[in-house]
Design a protein that fits this description.
The chain is mainly α and 229 residues long. It folds into 2 domains: 86 residues, no CATH class; 128 residues, Serine Threonine Protein Phosphatase 5, Tetratricopeptide repeat (Alpha Horseshoe). Helix content is 68%, strand content 0%. Helix 4 packs antiparallel against helix 5, helix 5 packs parallel to helix 7 and helix 12 runs parallel beside helix 14. The N and C termini lie far apart (44 Å).
Length: 229
């Protein structure tokens, strides 16, 4: 499937009413077609099948073109078809710096970035960025790694806690929600991390910040209710 064919499929599925609904949920409506995620997953599967398994670089190059289109859904689709072991350090930084909506940020992190060898380092590095969605990406990546990575030791996730604590005072909506997400997801990984996450949450609780107190209240409630092995 060529770039032109993929874009044609996306535009054919466009729905202006969906765009208005997405905007109400804080999704950037700029260059957005209103295409559903299930359709994007289906299109991603068809696109991968249309390319030979022996030609991963073709998919990688197509993903780059889709990202460069600046179309909201094309960027999400790019994360669904790109090849993790061909993603470069520079590509991750470039894409993350261009995030302009929470859903693109989260989809790219969960579909692609958390499968790369750079993921743990980028998660920490991006929390120091100023842009709301760039910073969110760091915590979204932490959450996705805690969710999807089944082999990394607890020590790798424990290194995220100082960054979570430090940025818990960020009052921006899409940052504090991602900080909360990362704390909860790490805590749900296993009993030892749950214990550590609760300890960190109680440390954050003492910070004089509305954002920090919101993050902790929600996280402690879920961690108290969630049974982990």
């Amino acid at each position: 499937m060529t770039y032109e064919e993929v874009i044609k499929n996306l535009k054919k599925e466009s729905n202006p009413r969906n765009v208005a609904g997405m905007a109400r949920f804080g999704i950037n409506p700029k260059k957005t077609l209103g295409v559903s995620v299930p359709f994007l997953r289906k299109l991603a599967k068809e696109t991968r099948k249309s390319h030979s398994a022996k030609a991963p670089r073709d998919l990688h190059q197509l993903a780059q073109k889709l990202w460069q289109s600046n179309i909201h859904e094309a960027r999400i689709l790019a994360s669904m078809i790109d090849v993790p072991n061909l993603v470069t350090d520079a590509q991750m930084d470039k894409w993350a710096s261009e995030f302009d909506s929470w859903d693109v940020c989260d989809q790219v992190c969960m579909n692609l970035f958390d499968k790369t060898p750079y993921a743990f380092n980028k998660a920490k590095k991006w929390t120091e960025k100023m842009g709301e969605f760039h910073k969110r990406a760091g915590f979204a990546l932490m959450a996705c790694l805690a969710w999807h990575d089944k082999t990394s030791p607890n020590s790798k996730f424990e290194k995220f806690f100082p960054f979570i604590k430090k940025e818990s005072i960020d009052e921006r909506n899409f940052v504090k929600k991602a900080v909360n997400w990362a704390l909860r997801q790490i805590g749900k990984r296993n009993k030892n991390l749950k214990k550590k996450a609760i300890e960190v949450a109680k440390e954050i609780q003492s910070i004089d910040s509305k954002s920090a107190k919101w993050i902790v209240k929600d996280a402690l409630k879920e961690l108290a209710e969630k049974k982990v092995n």
